[in-house]
Amino acid sequence: MSKAIRLLIAALVVLPLLLGACAPAAEPEEAPAEVEAPAEEPAEEPAEEPAEEPAEEPAAEPVETIEIEYWYGLGGKLGEVVADMINRFNESQDEVHVTGVVLPDYATTAQKLQAAVAASSPPAAVMLTSTEGNRFMQAGALQPLNDIIAAYPDFDLEDYPKGYRTPVEQDGKLHGIPIMATSQILYYRKDIFEELGIDPDRLETWEGLAEVAAECRVVDDNGDVTRWGWEPMWGSGNLVDAAYSNGARILSEDGTKVLIDQPEWVEVWESFRKWIHEDEIMSIHYGGEGWAYWYDTIDDVLEGRSCGYTGSPGDQGDLDFSIVAAHVQPYWSEWGNLDPLASGHVGVIPAGNPPEVQEAAFKWLAYYTSTDNAAEWSMRTGYLPARTSAKEAPALVEYAVDNPQILVPPTQGAEAMSF
Predict the structure, then answer these.
(1) CA torsion angle for 326, 327, 328, 332 (degrees, to 10)?
(2) Cβ of 161: how many Cβ atoms within 10 Å?
(3) Any idea what the Cα angle at residue 407 is, between residues 167 and 215, rounded to 5°?
(4) Burial class (CB in 10 A: 0-12, 13-18, 19+), 242
(5) Helix, strand or coil for residue 180?
């Protein structure tokens, strides 16, 4: 190879090296800047969630008021007292609403109930005499109350005297709640007795009462009686009452003989016949609608047309004790004992109504005969309270201090026989 060619090759080899050496040095690549973690912002406190409002309780469903009727045969002041208690009961709660149905008298009440039972549409509750209560019980028309009473442990059945309950008890089942008791007593004009100098103790015997009646009677110049000596109350029960205090009884002790034709009966009834129709020292109102005869008798005494009368403890709400006073019933001298009759009135729940109606009726009767209401009933009417505890109620004890007549019925009731 020629020298020229060798020089050319060498130049080609060296030239790139020289060019590379003369090239500016490459700046080293900067390491990528370290990425700073963003400054931690202070952690935000979690926002307070709004306090949960207490869940609304579902609205209480309105109480469904049960409507019931209460039938009773009381008018005048007595009817007003019942109406007051019905209103107070209705205002005291929302479960039961009582509508009082006033009937002319006890007999009409029983007749209406009999018709309602026959039509299968009896009222929820009724007041009956104990005799009528027994009759409806015997017919199976009254709801036994034992199961209802068992659901009310605070209801004190023993506080109702057993003698008042007995007429509506059968085979261990109770068919009524005693409401009140009665035993006929005497009412006389204090001013007339004082004017004539008559000692009220002379009223202790029927013979003494007849003598007083003869002294009290006033006759005008025409022979007309302007003031009667006494007015017995119309009704067979009053004649039975008087006969019992002469030793009369309806049945013999063994229950096998009717004794109503015995001398103890005849003597008493003959005496009243003679006093009214022959001696004309006594008079009697009878007939009319409802209690008309009863209020006519009371009016005669209050207006001075009679010196006194035989009436009910329940008359005390209608009487003015500034002019009249009360006295226990007489007895007959030969018998020598006071044996008046006492009878009760009961609240009954007729059978056939739905259970909820029967329970509503019981709630009303339990309220009506509570201790405080029984005491109030006695104070406002004069009837014997249906509960033993009522006699010790402070209100009744205090009332008797200024109203001693309220003590006459229970004094007589302690001697009374159940009828």
Answers:
(1) -140
(2) 19
(3) 105
(4) buried
(5) strand
Q: Are 344 and 160 in contact (CB under 8 A)?
A: no
State the amino acid at position 399 in one-letter form. Answer: Y
Beta bridge partners of 161: none
DSSP 8-state class, residue 384: E
Tell whether pTM > 0.85.
no
181 touches 384 (CB < 8 A): yes
Q: Give every CB contact of residue 324 below 8 A, 6+ residues apart in sequence.
A: 187, 188, 189, 190, 301, 302, 308
Per the rule left: phi > 0, alpha: psi between -120 and 50, beta: everything else, 103 is beta
Tokens of 179: 């409401």
- Report yes or no: 338 and 329 within 8 Å, Cβ to Cβ: yes
Buried b / exposed e over 80-106, threshold 16 CB at 10 Å, is: ebbeebbeebbeeeeebebebeebebb
Calpha distance 327→342 (Å, rounded): 16
pLDDT in tens, the chain (419 residues): 444 334 333 333 333 433 343 333 333 334 333 334 334 444 445 445 555 555 565 555 667 999 999 999 998 888 999 999 999 999 999 999 999 999 999 999 999 999 999 999 999 999 999 999 999 999 999 999 999 999 999 999 999 988 889 999 999 999 999 999 888 999 999 999 999 999 999 999 999 999 999 999 999 999 999 999 999 999 888 899 899 999 999 999 898 999 999 999 999 999 999 999 999 999 999 998 888 999 999 999 999 999 999 999 989 988 999 999 999 999 999 998 888 888 889 999 999 999 999 999 999 999 999 999 999 999 999 898 888 899 899 999 999 999 999 988 887 776 666 55
Q: Which residues contact 193 (CB under 8 A, 6 or more apart)?
A: 199, 200, 307
Torsion of CA 143, 147, 153, 154, to 10 degrees: 0
Q: How far apart are CA 281 and CA 289, in angstroms?
A: 26
Contact (CB, 8 A) for 141 and 351: yes
Q: Which amino acid, residue 60?
A: A
